Amino acid sequence: MKWLKLGIFFLILFIFFYLRLTPIINQTVPYTFDQGRDFLKAEEIIRDKNFTFIGPTTGIQGVHHGAWWYYLLSLFYLIFNGWPVGFYVGLFAFSTVVLFWFFFFVKKELGHQSSLLFLLPVAAGSFFVRLGFFASNNTLSPLFVLLFIYSVYQFFKNQSSKYLFFMSLSLGFIFEFEVAFGIFIITSFFIASLFFKLFRKSYLNLKRLALFLTGFVAPIFPRLLFELKNNFIQTKAFLNFYAHPTSTNKLSLLSTLTERAQLFIKYYFQLIPQENLYLGIFVFLFFIYLLIIGMKNIKRDKLDPLLFFSLLISIIFLVSLVSRNNFFWDYYLDGVQFIILFILILIFSLNNKLKLLKNSFLGILFFYIIASFLMNQSYKNVPLIGLRADNKIVNYFIEKTNNKYYCLKIYTPPVIPYTYYYLFSYYANHQKLKYPRQEFTNNQCYFIFDKEPYVFRVEKWRKENIPQNALLDKTIRYKNGTSIELWRIFNPNMP
Fold first, then answer.
1. Rounded CA gap, 451 and 148, in Å?
2. I need a labelling partner for 289 at 20 to 30 A (CA). Which of 36, 78, 193, 467 fits?
3. Strand ranges for 265-354 from DSSP E
4. Calculated CA dihedral for residues 399, 403, 408, 412, nearest 10 degrees
5. What's the mean pLDDT in 325-341?
């Protein structure tokens, strides 16, 4: 039995690492406008000592996420000397440490079976997998939800003031890494906490309240400095947005309710292997059964956390209804998945007399994950996407320009080609490649055209950037739709 458990554990570990490391090794990780912009900012912080108190922009004009994302990237930049893949390796390492720390916490507090219930969906679920290599500020927010869950659980168990500090610290970081989710979860947490005497007593205790506020202020301190320096510009922008939302079509309450319900159902199914409908229904009914059986002899140390997190999820859902614009990105509430999963784990641990039934359930999930993993493996060529695609383009210039000055102009659909800018900057510093110029050099210039569904935009850009007396000399097309063109001016005196 011991060897069987070890075998299952290492198979899950293999899937966990394979699904996260394969995109990093193949460099098929997402690499878009946002990643290029953020990597350039990290380079600016390290190289130019140009520090900042705010981070990337949010969906609200004038409001930014926190600066911690840039400083985490700056740490990765230092460790890997600016290597583009290094940012993804660093993120993978950070997320893996957090996830396994929480795994061992669950194992210690709730048992081996409960820890496997945490690890199984986390190992193979698409939402959880992308936390390991999607280099974006909002992927850090769910990881701090785990610190929040840990702190709340321990606070109910031990009632120690230090967990109040970690609780508010985690809420502050959630807010800084994803402002939208921060607003929703902080508001919901405060409302939910008022239903519990332990929290109400803590708020009335000045020492505990001060510790709680200190934990929250620490992560947002750079933002506070920015606000003080700039006459509370972000606060005013947010209040203005709240008073006068963007000019999108406002949804009815019923439409908003339906949309949010579908979103929360989606969050639940992201815990299910391959998001299978029938398996999802089976899991839901199984946990309803466990809850009915387990509630008979439930202990206080498990009842309070279960009630708290269940109430918290319900309030987050209700608070989200306040936002009734016709856009509501899924990642605004990313992290809810971990709360739902922990609720299931708490229900799973209620009754210790159903080991055979629980093992059978875990076996079903395990074999389904293994079967799905094997069915989805193929030996096709590595696709030319993400960082791999842009790296291939830049390597063309490393080979062709032979460390000489050259002209290059770039068209990408978001207009500002941050992705290429960072790669050219990195290779100019670490390989035999000059940073490109914008002016025609030796009567010629290269042009990069990323795939653009709206042809008229490309044509307009061509007219504005290619001289009338230039002639197309060469075109190279890539499978991902990107092309490189070489334009020459054969007669410079021609108008």
1. 42
2. 193
3. none
4. 60
5. 91
